[in-house]
Design a protein that fits this description.
The complex is a heterodimer. By secondary structure, chain A is α/β, with parallel strands linked by helices. Chain A has 2 domains: 10-268, 3-Layer(aba) Sandwich (Aldehyde Dehydrogenase, Chain A, domain 1), CATH 3.40.605.10; 270-448, 3-Layer(aba) Sandwich (Aldehyde Dehydrogenase, Chain A, domain 2), CATH 3.40.309.10. Chain A is built from 15 helices and 20 strands. In chain A, strands 3-2-10-9-8-11-12 form a 7-stranded mixed beta sheet, with helices on both faces. In chain A, strands 15-16-17-14-13-18-19 form a 7-stranded mixed beta sheet, with helices on both faces. Chain A starts with 9 loop residues before the first strand and ends in a 15-residue tail after the last strand. Chain B is of the alpha/beta class. In chain B, helix 8 (162-173) crosses helix 9, helix 10 crosses helix 11 (259-276) and helix 13 (303-316) crosses helix 14 (343-350). Chain B starts with a helix and ends in a 6-residue tail after the last helix. Classes of the chains: A alpha/beta, B alpha/beta. At the A-B interface, helix 9 and helix 12 of A face helix 4, strand 1, helix 6 and helix 15 of B.
Chain lengths: 493, 481
């Protein structure tokens, strides 16, 4: 029954409202270049059901212990393989057709492997890493100077505006809903129209009456549909919006933010690499650094925020140094082409025409040397001076700009900004040297060269702790008899 | 009797003559151009493509480098030219930092790779501004570089000679010439006034250069032949700075301006205010409308500007009363203008002139006029291709093909005029347009290739796609502020 979806197919995506599957009132979206045509119910006809009016309806979660929730999530994860789950298989096919940047092999790899984030030991590690104390399970007591407090993290009613450049986020939204004991309305992006729906359909089949099934809504609407959004984003209806994406999606969302609605904004990011002079110690170290950088550039076709787009290299800038640097650039290009096909493709399905023109333009410029970028294979632009290409923030499609510096310190002001998420670093010893300067300029995550794409949720992300932000933190205070009258001000003897 | 006849009969034009002198085509009538056998046209084009390649490859370094890169050493078929065409970004692929740091020796070196003319003797010592650099080039070489303001805020610099710069003016104004019984006038007789409500009178921008070329070459130096809205010289530095300001505004980047730049920015603001001022418009309406009562005019403006003129006339209680045969031309739809209610009616009321539309780009003098069937027909000195937008491989030169537009201006003799444009076009290669013009024609709807094409509901955590979407949307006026 499963058909192969291509960009000519119309994908019908049911609306899932807390365990109910709806396939009426279908309207059409999309059909533009690089996307599939979606038929999905008009959310405007269901807006009252989509919003969970009464927050007390979250009480059904509290019949479960955390251990049971963890077991349930692990069971869910085991059922999400595309080889055994037809919904997930269909989601994979839709993603292959709808994704503009990822090719079938890496997508297949992602779908097969990322469900393992739901394994019990991983989830436990994440909870421990983020919450440190069992706030999700019970009231945790702390003694303060003037009172005793008990703190507990409760779930909230959330809307997730998810990105489509990775299926991990769909999994994460659902996982967080369970761990936080919340309610989530998930908006699927047009470049991944089906994954969250597929997981919800799996939940319905697996356990139709489970609180998680009863607290997941998955829908699609066009961002900017004012009629719908105005009713959705009311503080009576939701407490948190977790929004990924840039100006266009944020613009729609920010217009609705008022008292009572907390926006957790995961803005788009740039990532880069810092490579110390040690990389040029020998041919071996050069080759090693080249292969690690290639991985940071090419993993998942450079579609992620964590992928490196510019590498600042402490090569020196005189003629001989630049010769070595060009040799390094050539090596990076070779290594790029050798990346395993399950994480990277040598034929990007949608190499940006605009970027191609920009690179075409600078080929004639003696201050830049271009390796590759002839078709869709990506490539390396080696600046012959300490100047990055003007279009650095437009780099995509497995391209990297290598910029020489005399000393790595010169890279800070050029390369590290408030939009910098990941900085991958070589050698390891360089991390200590650069960390504060990077931190002060806005960088959010320092990692080893080669590990840019190894994102984890068991740690801060984008300089915040998103999962903690998604919780509602309640506090109960107890005062000793003698502290009753202190009115909260510091008593002065 | 004989000599009278000789004077009366126009010299017969035929395509064979153009093998020796392609520029002579600029003397042809539109009927002559569009009634040529398409196969003969293509033969002529292939001849000239080969000739330009042979002449220019050894002299234009950028062409030589590209030809080496793509390993194309001869042009056997017309499609062989495609990999040799420069992306339109070539014209702005200089280092912005070079310009900002006034490293004009490096700018010289960059520009010289794109022209056959030698710039090595252009003295850039002490050059403080872009305007001065351009002046030094004009003084020391046959070049008068022409600028365009790019959508990304970075200006393009084209190394054209005076003659080549003039071709753009001729190509555009030729759109006013009639074909068969379509409306037309002959702007080159100099007996009609060119009205262009452009914000500056002179300067290195391709629009101001069109104006100055018209004054010089059509009106023999008579300034009153061309009526402009702004009367000042457009400064290249101001153009550059405006672009940077716009770009910084869009990206939220904080611009660090030098004192000089800050002064310049103030000056730009003041000049813009002047140009937009009622006093300026008073003067313009007086010159463009009141004083041209009963005279023949041709207006070259965007719809927005014509609308502004109509509003200005209405406000002043002035009604244009031009001689019959007057016309207007627009460059097609205004990109980011929201058409106000009743705009068409107001324009028809005040400027009830036959209005034509033009399509082209400043790299390409073979400008097309929209025919009554709603199609673009490039004149024969412009060669066209449609290529696959992703691979840049040629699509067949038959049937209907949609893709990226590539063009070549055969008149250019000092630079390589093959351009990979940023436009998406649908070409009908087999011709047969009901307007009567022979040869291939393009559909009216021209789009720019942008990232947004993939669907603006795509969300990614990576800044790249987003940054470009914003940039495009900003320049198309979709983003506030």
């Amino acid at each position: 029954m499963d058909s192969i979806i291509d960009s000519q197919t119309v994908v019908t995506v049911p609306l899932i409202i807390r365990g109910r599957i709806i396939e009426d009132n279908l309207i059409e979206f999309g059909g533009r270049r690089g996307g599939v045509t979606l038929m999905t119910p008009d959310v405007n006809k269901y807006v009252d059901e989509i919003t969970l009016r009464n927050p007390a309806d979250l009480r059904d979660w509290y019949s479960l212990e955390m251990e049971e929730i963890l077991d349930f999530l692990e069971e869910l994860g085991s059922r999400l393989s595309p080889s055994t789950n037809p919904h997930i298989r269909r989601a994979l096919e839709a993603s292959i057709a709808a994704s503009s940047g990822l090719t079938p092999e890496p997508l297949r790899f992602m779908y097969e492997s990322q469900r393992h984030m739901l394994k019990k030991e991983r989830v436990k590690e994440m909870i421990e890493g983020v919450f440190h104390e069992p706030y999700l399970e019970r009231w945790v007591s702390h003694q303060r100077l003037d009172r005793t407090i008990k703190v507990r993290a409760f779930g909230s009613r959330m809307v997730h505006i998810n990105p489509g450049n990775g299926i991990a986020i769909a999994l994460q939204s659902i996982m967080n809903t369970a761990l936080l004991r919340g309610d989530s309305i998930i908006k699927s992006p047009s470049n991944d129209p089906f994954t969250a729906t597929a997981i919800a359909l799996t939940l319905i089949e697996m356990a139709p009456n489970h609180p998680l099934t009863k607290h997941i809504t998955v829908c699609y609407w066009k961002g900017g549909d004012e009629a719908f959004e105005r009713r959705l984003y009311r503080p009576n209806n939701i407490e948190k919006i977790v929004a990924w994406g840039g100006l266009s999606s944020m613009k729609h969302v920010r217009g609705y933010i008022g008292p009572g609605v907390d926006l957790i904004a995961l803005d788009p990011k740039n990532s880069c690499s810092l490579i110390g002079a040690e990389a040029f110690d020998s041919d071996d170290t050069m080759r090693r650094a080249a292969s690690l950088l290639a991985r940071d550039v090419g993993a998942f076709n450079q579609e992620g925020c964590a992928n490196s787009r510019v590498a600042y290299v402490e090569s020196g800038i005189d003629e001989k140094d630049i010769e070595e640097l060009n040799r390094f650039g050539q090596m990076v290009f070779e290594e790029l082409l050798r990346l395993p096909s399950e994480i990277s493709s040598n034929d990007h399905p949608n190499f940006s025409a605009v970027l191609r023109d920009e690179i075409g333009g600078i080929r004639n410029n003696p201050y830049f040397k271009v390796f590759g970028c002839k078709a869709n294979e990506g490539g390396v632009i080696v600046s012959q001076e300490t100047e990055q290409v003007e279009f650095a923030i437009h780099i995509s499609g497995r391209v990297v700009n290598i910029v020489p510096v005399n000393k790595i310190e010169e890279a800070y002001d050029i390369g590290i900004t408030i939009d910098t998420q990941t900085v991958s670093i070589y050698p390891e010893s360089l991390k200590d040297k650069v960390r504060n300067e990077c931190a002060w300029r806005g960088a959010q995550r320092l990692t080893s060269l080669g590990c840019s794409s190894s994102l984890s949720f068991a740690q801060p992300h984008d300089a915040i702790e998103p999962m903690r932000r998604m919780a509602r933190w309640l506090v109960i205070e107890d005062f000793r008899e003698e502290d009753f009258g202190n009115s909260g001000l510091f008593k002065v003897e | 009797m004989e000599s009278n006849l000789k004077r009366a009969l126009p010299q017969a034009h035929n395509i064979a003559q153009l093998y020796d002198d392609i520029e002579a085509v600029l003397d042809w009538t539109q009927d002559e151009i569009y009634d040529q056998d398409p196969a003969a046209v293509e033969d002529l084009q292939l001849y000239w493509l080969r000739r330009r390649f042979t002449e220019l490859r050894p002299q234009v370094r950028a062409l030589d480098k590209l030809a080496q890169d793509v390993d194309v050493n001869s042009i056997e078929t017309i499609d062989d030219v495609i990999p040799l065409c420069f992306p339109h970004t070539m014209l702005k692929a200089y280092s912005a930092s070079d310009l900002e740091k006034r490293r004009f020796d490096r700018m010289n070196r960059w520009l010289s790779t794109m022209t056959k003319h030698d710039l090595s003797h252009v003295d850039v010592r002490g050059v403080e501004s872009l305007d001065e650099w351009l002046n030094r080039i004009s003084a020391a070489t046959p070049l008068i570089p022409q600028l365009s303001s790019g959508t990304s805020g970075k200006i393009s610099i084209q190394p054209k000679t005076a003659v080549e710069g003039n071709h753009l003016m001729v190509g555009e104004l030729r759109c006013f010439l009639p074909y068969r019984d379509e409306p037309g006038l002959d702007p080159f007789r100099g007996d009609a006034t060119l009205v262009t409500p452009w914000i500056a009178r002179s300067g290195p921008h391709h629009v101001t250069m069109l104006q100055t070329n018209a004054v010089k070459n059509i009106f023999g130096g008579r300034e009153e032949g061309v009526v402009t809205l702004g009367y000042q010289k457009m400064s290249a530095d101001a153009l550059w700075l405006s672009g940077r300001l716009r770009r910084a505004q869009m990206t939220g980047e904080e611009l660090k301006l030098t004192d000089k730049e800050r002064e310049l920015a103030k000056q730009i603001a003041k000049e813009s205010a002047d140009v937009a001022s009622p006093a300026q418009m008073d003067r313009f309406i007086d010159q463009a409308v009141t004083r041209l009562k009963g005279k023949k005019v041709y207006i070259r403006a965007t719809w927005q500007r014509i609308y502004d003129m109509a509003v200005a006339c209405k406000e002043r209680g002035v009604r244009p009363d031009y001689a019959p045969g007057s016309m207007a031309a627009t460059g097609g739809g205004a990109k980011n203008w929201v058409f106000p209610e009743g705009w068409r009616e107001l324009i028809s009321e005040y400027f009830p002139l036959p209005t034509i539309e033009m399509y082209g780009m400043s790299e390409f003098s073979a400008i097309s006029r929209l025919c009554p069937e709603g199609h673009w027909h490039a004149p024969l000195w412009g060669v066209s291709w449609i290529v696959d937008p992703k691979t840049s491989k040629p699509l067949p030169r038959k049937g209907v093909q949609t893709g990226r537009y590539v063009c070549f201006d055969l008149l250019a003799e000092s630079y390589w005029a093959g351009t990979l444009s940023g436009d998406k076009l649908t070409m009908h290669w087999d011709g047969g347009c009901a307007c009567g013009r022979k040869g291939p024609y393009a559909e009216m709807d021209v789009r720019r290739f942008t990232e947004v094409e993939g669907g603006d509901d795509k969300i990614s955590c990576s800044k790249t796609a987003d940054a470009y979407t914003d940039l495009v949307k900003y320049t198309q006026g979709d983003v506030d502020g």
